[in-house]
Design brief:
This protein has about 220 residues and is α/β, with parallel strands linked by helices. The chain has a single domain, classed as Nucleoside phosphorylase domain (Rossmann fold).
Length: about 220
């Protein structure tokens, strides 16, 4: 049986460290790390934090081709009814800062008549493995500066009614356009988007839940 090639990109090693430990995977010092277990061949990229690092890293990658291209990481939630640690599938992601200020008004990039777009999507969600099919599908934004001011949070939610915030997601969707396969952004909630208070965050729980989902997905491919 041929291997299923899977691309897994994370901003930091810490976000997928439990998966690496579970499968006894050693990362290469530089470049892409490849591990084969059962029916799958996993290609792992650690991009560094932020949209520029994400786009740069993926831009150098050639298509394997891949059955799945996955961006895995943690995220903040604008919705405080969402439980910390919940794992979600981000299906639509927007570069929310692209545009111009006009006094107190923000002009989105699409309204400036300069071409291009800021909203990007995952691909091929018609059939998902059982381990992923039950995940809540939500919209997110990608930022260079995470929100921590109540006024800016109110303004962004009036303009873009989204559920999550990350620093890589939209760039991953855009930069993976040349890759084949199902493109997925899987994130677990580590904190709420509010005035910054790290004492209320639960990054360990978010990482554990994220990796449990990824491991279930990979194990499912071997059955």
């Amino acid at each position: 049986m041929p291997f299923k090639n899977i691309l897994l990109l994370a901003a930091t090693r810490a976000e997928i460290d439990p998966l690496l430990t579970h499968y006894a995977i050693t990362l290469a010092d530089d470049g892409i790390s490849v591990a084969e277990r059962g029916n799958w061949r996993l290609h792992i990229l650690i991009s560094g934090v932020g949209m520029v690092n994400t786009a740069y890293t993926l831009g150098k990658l050639k298509d394997a081709p891949f059955a799945y291209c996955i961006n895995a990481g943690i995220a903040g939630s604008f919705d405080k009814s969402t439980a910390l640690g919940e794992v979600m599938l981000i299906t639509e992601d927007t570069l929310s800062e692209m545009g111009a200020e006009d006094g107190n008004q923000f002009i989105p990039w699409e309204q400036m008549g300069m071409g291009g777009e800021t909203c990007f999507y995952g691909r091929t969600y018609t059939t998902l493995p059982a381990s992923l099919a039950g995940l809540k599908q939500v919209k997110g934004i990608t930022v260079n500066t995470v929100h921590g001011n109540e006024n800016s949070i109110t303004h962004i939610l009036k303009r873009l009614p989204v559920q999550t915030e990350s620093m890589e997601g939209a760039a991953f969707f855009r930069a993976s356009a040349h890759l084949s396969g199902t493109v997925l952004q899987i994130r677990s909630i580590s904190n709420y988007v509010e005035k910054r208070d790290r004492s209320t965050w639960n990054i360990p729980l978010a990482i554990t839940q994220l990796n449990n989902t990824l491991i279930q997905f990979l194990d499912e491919l071997n059955h």
